[in-house]
Specification:
The complex is a heterodimer. By secondary structure, chain A is an all-alpha fold. Helix content of chain A is 70%, strand content 3%. The two termini of chain A are 39 Å apart. Classes of the chains: A mainly alpha, B alpha/beta. Chain A binds chain B through residues 125, 127-128, 131, 142-144, 227-229, 238-239, 241-243, 245, 247, and chain B through 82-83, 85-86, 105-106, 108-109, 145-147, 151, 172-175, 179, 182-183, 185-188. Chain A: Keywords: Cell membrane, Membrane, Transmembrane, Transmembrane helix, Transport.
Chain lengths: 285, 274
């Protein structure tokens, strides 16, 4: 039992006064208005010209499942290619060799400077320029046998992603304190070993959120590969509605799959962030 | 006095004549415009002139002539081929005249007024060894994936290849006619399929590049698509189209594009048996 604090002379005792609750009329009104609008939208979709039986029938159709599998395979592989290229190009950008820095800058300029769909079409139609591809004296093949829709999409998406990822990686490496570089040098580490063992592990912590962001973008960017006949989920959904004219239903099917995938990816990113934040300050969001 | 009675008489005759003629729907008459949507990747039916970037083509000329006779202006818009039918349903377009084949499967939501004989036709690069369509069994054949041609190819392959113990045609999808021809030039596919009405133009553009194999392997019509509940508009357009066929202006437009052989004698409703 602590003694109640004594009031200083001349001050009224306000400890017993009940505080009146403020009425937040604006908040209530806004919330009500939003709920009404949401209910109206929901009702419109229920009563709209949508044959929900088609949606449920095609949600798990074989061709749609194959499509979403292809979407994910492409997104993972293209992102992996993008990260590998991004790390290499970021290291080149921070090198002191002028050839390396300008090649890296040129790569970023070229592949960030044109639309992704244009790059995909270029890869797909490469055979118009180079009918055969090969290594002189070792191996050669018809360009079209090499540049399948799959490989055209992988190269187009991956190389384009590399240009963006290189900037993310560069930012991550710049975020590591310069003292870390100096300390690694002081104990006799070479530049590449210092990068691998000291700098990049610390940079990873910083680049995970933007990379997660980029990957979610990549999942959806794969849909552009539908124009070069890579059978991802949107391409396959389109093929179905070309045949049965159920446009909205099939777009809802494809959209639901994208939403589901992105909803699963978000918590996965959290786990990755935790893993790379070991030993650092546990920053809770 | 005589002049007055004469003009009254003429006016009476005129009223009788128009009473029998179909009328434009009120909304179109009020606006004075017809909203039409085309997919401009299908020369010579509808395409953008490379030098002027204007919409041109056989369908464009036919529609312009119809609009002139109906006394309305056309507001053109463009869309992918696959979105033509949705555009009609959502009333983005009043009707569709865009190189679209009259097919039973498309009549659920629309009626066709057929105005041009057509059919899918195989073609190859000139240097290809194939002598006739039957040589394409087991080969890769490409066509635009949003059209009716993939189904047609499959049907043809069943009847001509598989029925005779030959391997089936391998269908390869393309995004539009230009993409399909690109795939052909690169050797991605051995042969391609387009509507017979578009092949003379493609051959004219790239002289000596392509060789047509055989006749169109199924016969059908291209039609103007109307919404089922839009009988008034359908009737008035059909009437003017019939008049154009009778007075030779229809034939003149077809001849301009070298497609006089694809002419039909009169507009027919849902006449295609496909």
């Amino acid at each position: 039992m602590r003694a109640a604090p004594t009031l200083a002379e001349g001050f009224p005792d306000i400890s017993e006064i009940t505080v009146a609750r403020q009425a937040h009329w604006g908040r209530w009104l806004a919330a009500a208005a939003i709920l009404v609008v949401l209910a109206a939208i929901g009702r419109a979709f229920v009563n709209g010209q949508i044959e929900w039986t088609y949606v449920s029938r095609f949600l798990t159709a074989k061709v749609i499942l194959e499509g979403i599998t292809n979407t994910m395979v492409m997104a993972v592989l293209a992102m992996a290619l993008g990260i590998v290229l991004g790390v290499v190009v970021a290291i080149m950008r921070l090198s002191s060799n002028p050839v390396l820095t300008s090649v890296a800058a040129g790569y970023t300029w070229l592949f960030r400077g044109t639309p992704l769909i244009l790059q995909l079409l270029l890869w797909f139609n490469l055979a118009l320029v180079f009918p055969t591809i090969g290594i002189p004296g070792l191996w050669s093949a018809r360009a079209v046998d090499v540049m399948t829709p799959f490989l055209s999409a992988l190269l187009g998406l991956g190389i384009n992603q590399g240009a963006y990822t290189s900037e993310v990686m560069r930012a991550g490496m710049l975020s590591v304190d310069v003292g870390q570089y100096e300390a690694a040098q002081a104990i006799g580490m070479g530049r590449l070993r210092a990068l691998r063992r000291i700098i990049l592990p610390q940079a990873m912590r910083v680049v995970i959120p933007p990379l997660g962001n980029e990957f979610i973008g990549m999942v959806k960017a794969t849909s552009l590969a539908s124009v070069i006949q890579y059978p991802e989920v949107l391409h396959n959904a389109e093929n179905i509605y070309y045949a049965n004219s159920r446009v909205i239903e099939l777009l809802i099917v494809a959209g639901s799959w994208y939403l589901l995938v992105v909803s699963i990816l978000t918590p996965l990113q959290m786990l990755l962030e935790r893993r790379f934040a070991r030993g650092a300050l546990q920053i809770t969001r | 006095m005589t002049r007055l009675s004469f003009s009254v008489g003429v006016a009476a005759l005129f009223v009788i004549a128009t009473a029998q003629a179909a009328e434009l729907p009120e909304s179109i008459k009020q606006a004075g415009t017809l909203r039409l949507t085309v997919n401009s990747t299908y020369a010579p039916m509808e395409y953008r002139d490379p030098t002027t970037n204007q919409l041109v083509g056989l369908d464009i000329d036919l529609a312009n002539e119809l609009a002139k006779r109906l006394g309305v202006k056309i507001v053109w818009s463009e869309t992918p081929f696959a979105e033509l039918i949705p555009s009609l349903q959502t009333k983005r377009a009043d009707f569709i005249i865009s190189g679209i084949s009259d097919r039973g499967s498309r009549r659920e939501t629309a009626d066709f007024i057929d105005y041009l004989a057509t059919g899918p036709q195989f073609f190859v690069l000139t240097e290809n060894a194939a002598k006739s369509p039957i040589d394409l069994c087991g080969k890769k054949v490409g066509t635009t994936r949003s059209t009716s041609f993939p189904v047609e190819i499959e049907k043809w392959s069943k009847q001509n290849c598989e029925a005779n113990g030959k391997p089936a045609v391998q269908y390869v999808p393309g995004e539009n006619s230009i993409d399909v021809r690109n795939q052909l030039k690169q050797g991605r596919i051995d042969a391609a399929v387009q509507g017979s009405e578009t092949l003379p133009y493609a051959q004219g553009q790239e002289a000596g590049k392509y060789r047509i194999l055989g006749e169109p392997f199924s016969t059908g019509y291209q039609g103007i698509m109307f919404r089922k509940d839009d009988a008034a508009l359908r009737e008035v357009v059909t009437e003017h189209l019939a008049a154009m066929m009778a007075d030779g202006s229809y034939k003149a437009i077809l001849d301009k594009y070298g497609l006089g052989a694809n002419a039909v004698a009169q507009p027919m409703m849902n006449a295609s048996t496909q």
